[in-house]
Structures are given as structure tokens and as C-alpha cells.
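Q: what sequence does this backbone want?
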């Protein structure tokens, strides 16, 4: 169960669809379970069908899972849906120390 983005550029609108995880997000789906408008925060879904499929072992994507919990369609704990990329710091070369002048040789 995951989102399928529809709508124009800058005007996102999502379908909640049931599909295999190996299929493309914009490809075929088995069943249309609802829709979500993020601009109006409006969720329309088939609660009975979502509960049915989840009882059969279907897993929702983390974002869909969290949305369904927020809207009280299902109950449970939220999942981590987004993780910031860790920027690895490359060890920079330490600033070069000025070479010490050799001590004057005694004559």
C-alpha cells in the first residue's frame, strides 16, 4: 500500500493504492483505496478495505502508515519515514607547519 502521485506540477495530489512493491509507483495497481490532498489535508479512504488488506498481511509504506495513524484510520506506533542524509566529513589536511630553520652551525 503506497502513494501514487497525480496532479499538476506544484499541485500534488495522491492516490492510496494497493500494489506489489516490485511494480513502478505510477504503474498498475490492484485496488484504489483512497486519496489524499496535502494542500487541504483532506484524506478520503475506504477504511474497511484498508483494514481487510492489512489483516491479510499487506504492509503500508511508512508515509502512508503514519498518515493513516494521524487520521485515526488505524492504530499503532508511527514509523520512521524520512531520514536525513549523513554528510561524511573528509579529513582535511592539517595546515602545514612552517619548517623550522636549522640551528646555525657553530664555527
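A:
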Amino acid at each position: 500500500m503506497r502513494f501514487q502521485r497525480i496532479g499538476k506540477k506544484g499541485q500534488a495530489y495522491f492516490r492510496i493504492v494497493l500494489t506489489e512493491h516490485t511494480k513502478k509507483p505510477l504503474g498498475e495497481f490492484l485496488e484504489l483505496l483512497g486519496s489524499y490532498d496535502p494542500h487541504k489535508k483532506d484524506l478520503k479512504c475506504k477504511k474497511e478495505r484498508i483494514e481487510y488488506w492489512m489483516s491479510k498481511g499487506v504492509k503500508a509504506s511508512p508515509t502512508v502508515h503514519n498518515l493513516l495513524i494521524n487520521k485515526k484510520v488505524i492504530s499503532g506506533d508511527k514509523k520512521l519515514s524520512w531520514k536525513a542524509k549523513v554528510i561524511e566529513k573528509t579529513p582535511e589536511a592539517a595546515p602545514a607547519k612552517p619548517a623550522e630553520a636549522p640551528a646555525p652551525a657553530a664555527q
